Request: fold
Amino acid sequence: MCKVLRVSKSGYYAWIKAKKSATEEENQALEKDILFIYEKSRRVFGWKKIRKAILKMPLKDRNFKGSTINHKRIQRLMKKLGIQSKVCKKYKATTNSNHSLPVAENLLNREFKTERPNEKLVSDITYIATEEGWLYVAAINDLYGHYNIGLSMSTRMTKQLVIAALDDAYRRGGKPCNTILHSDRGSQYCSYAYQERLKKYGYTCSMSRKGNCWDNAPIESFWGKMKMEWLNDCRFKTIEEAKSKVFEYVMIFYNRQRIHESNDYITPEEYYHSYQKSKSKSTTLAG
Reply:
């Protein structure tokens, strides 16, 4: 090796034994933490989330013991390690609004901010290719913390698909009231059976304007994240394989492990349940 690199053996061994600077040692420790968080996030997180995740780690579990980390340092080390976050792409819509069923007013009107859980929900359908055919996935996300509270999957894109997601959201959301549930104006959402179920549960229906995906942007973004971060490199032989992968992303990674900048870098589940904790604390203090 020394001959190829044209260096002396003595010079090489002197370099090996040379004491590293404090900065070099810190960088090596930080690189280990960066790689740990990056792999733990399934190679999804970028420098912002990696920096926050490292600082949230208990000091005893970290290689890097510093209390602050410059973001440029994280960027530089990630570049050195040859790693980067995954970027979401746009995907084709699945909406079929060519029907004569009644359409609801756009009550949400792109007001995506919310003050409490179960105030505003958004719903949509997407599809995933497998060697056995298409898998259709319906989801319902609470805009409070971007928490997924409803999920259903089927080989057919029918009204039963969205009704199953609605039933799931109603149970997991604690049977709420005074809730707006927004969707596109696809035939599944406009069906009489789905609308009857909404009335039974006390939800208020809201629908996007025709051909306007921006009216339902939060869940369109959710689908984009799922496909880019989790599914793009997958080739599914069976429907069951795809179902398992979707469930793992939505219920395990996205809800419980994926930190969000808009949630102050905590997970949707932590953010969603923080409301009840703060409410209980306020009630105790008042008592």
Observations:
- The mean pLDDT is 90.
- The first strand starts at residue 120 and ends at 130.
